[in-house]
C-alpha cells in the first residue's frame, strides 16, 4: 500500500460517511411530507418483514400528505397497521384502494427534539470521519516504521489527511445547518 492509496482510501471512506449522514438526515421528519420517512417501515408480507416500498407504491399527494397504494388489495390493512405501529407518530387512513398518510405539523417542542436528533447524527458522522483520519495516520506511521516511505512523505500525507478531515467536517456542519434550518422553519 502506498501513501497515495492511504489518502484515496481515506477520501472514499469519508465520502461514504457523508452519504450515510445525508441518508440519515433525510429520514428526520420536517413539517413537510416526503416519501423518505416511510423508507424504514417494515410490513409483514406473508410472514416475512418486507420494506414498504417493496409491497406498495409510495407517492406524495400534496405538501402534507403521503399516498401509499398497495400492489395487492389484501395488503391494505397490513400496511396501514405497520405505518400506525411505526415510531413516526403518523395516523394513516384507508380510502378505497389507497392509504392516505397525513403528516401533522410539528410542535415547537418536537422541532427542538428533531434539532437535537440532527445534531446527534452529525456528531456521529464527525466521529466516523475522525476515526478514519486516525486509521490513516496509523497506516502512515506503520509505513514509516517499515521504511516504505520517508518521514517527509509521511508528514505531507498526514497534513493532506488533516485537510481532508477538515473539509469533510465542514461539509457535515453545512449539512447540519441546512437541516436544522429546514426543521425549525414553520
From TrEMBL:
What the entry lists under Gene3D superfamilies is as follows: 3.30.1360.40, Ribosome-recycling factor (1.10.132.20)
Residue ranges constituting the Ribosome recycling factor domain according to the UniProt record: 21-184
InterPro entries tied to this protein: Ribosome_recyc_fac, Ribosome_recyc_fac_dom, RRF_sf
Any one Pfam family match given in the protein's UniProt record, by short name: RRF
Q: Keywords, A to Z?
A: Coiled coil, Cytoplasm, Protein biosynthesis
Classification via CDD domains? RRF
Q: Which residues form a coiled coil?
A: 133-167
Q: Quote the subcellular location field of this record.
A: Cytoplasm
Q: Which domain of life is it from?
A: Bacteria
Q: In which family does this protein belong, per the annotation? A: Belongs to the RRF family.
Q: Tell me, what does this protein do in biology?
A: Responsible for the release of ribosomes from messenger RNA at the termination of protein biosynthesis. May increase the efficiency of translation by recycling ribosomes from one round of translation to another.
UniProt cross-references to PANTHER family, sorted A to Z: MITOCHONDRIAL RIBOSOME RECYCLING FACTOR PSEUDO 1, RIBOSOME RECYCLING FACTOR
This protein is called Ribosome-recycling factor
Question: What organism does the UniProt record list as the source?
Answer: Undibacterium aquatile
Amino acid at each position: 500500500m502506498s501513501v497515495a492509496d492511504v489518502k484515496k482510501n481515506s477520501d472514499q471512506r469519508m465520502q461514504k460517511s457523508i452519504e450515510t449522514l445525508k441518508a440519515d438526515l433525510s429520514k428526520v421528519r420536517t413539517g413537510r411530507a416526503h416519501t423518505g420517512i416511510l423508507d424504514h417501515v417494515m410490513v409483514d408480507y406473508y410472514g416475512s418483514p418486507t420494506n414498504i416500498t417493496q409491497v406498495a407504491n409510495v407517492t406524495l399527494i400534496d405538501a402534507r400528505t403521503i399516498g401509499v397504494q398497495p400492489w395487492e388489495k389484501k395488503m391494505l390493512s397490513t400496511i396501514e397497521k405497520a405505518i400506525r405501529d411505526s415510531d413516526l407518530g403518523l395516523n394513516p387512513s384507508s380510502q378505497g384502494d389507497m392509504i392516505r398518510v397525513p403528516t401533522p405539523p410539528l410542535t415547537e417542542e418536537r422541532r427542538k427534539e428533531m434539532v437535537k436528533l440532527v445534531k446527534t447524527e452529525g456528531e456521529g458522522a464527525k466521529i466516523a470521519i475522525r476515526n478514519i483520519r486516525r486509521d490513516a495516520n496509523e497506516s502512515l506511521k506503520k509505513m514509516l516504521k517499515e521504511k516504505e516511505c520517508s518521514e517527509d512523505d509521511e508528514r505531507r500525507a498526514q497534513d493532506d489527511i488533516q485537510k481532508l478531515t477538515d473539509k469533510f467536517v465542514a461539509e457535515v456542519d453545512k449539512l447540519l445547518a441546512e437541516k436544522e434550518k429546514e426543521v425549525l422553519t414553520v
